[in-house]
Amino acid sequence: MDQTVISIIIGAFSLITGGLAGKFLFSKNTKKQVEDAEHQSQTILKEAELRAETIKKEKQLEAKERFVQLKSEHDREVMDRNRKLGEAENRIKQKEISVTQKETGLDKQTKDNEVIKDNLNRQIELVNLKRTELEKNQEEHIRKLEKIAGLSAEDAKAQLIEGLKQEAHSQALSLQQDIIEEAKLKANKEARKIVIQSIQRTAAEITIENTVTVFNLETDEIKGQIIGREGRNIRAIEAATGVDLIVDDTPEAIILSSFDPLRREIARLSLQRLVADGRIHPARIEEVVEKTRRQLEEQVMEIGERTVIEMGIHGLHKELVRIVGKMRFRSSYGQNLLMHSRETANLCGIMAAELGMNPKLAKRAGLLHDIGKVPDEETELSHALLGAKLAEKYGENPAVVNAIGAHHDEMEMQYVISPIIQACDAISGARPGARREIMQQYLQRIKDLENLAMAYQGVEKAYAIQAGRELRVIVEAEKVTDGDSDKLSFEIAQKIQTEMTYPGQIKVTVIREKRAVNVAR
Question: Strand locations in 138-219, DSSP E?
Answer without folding.
Answer: 212-216
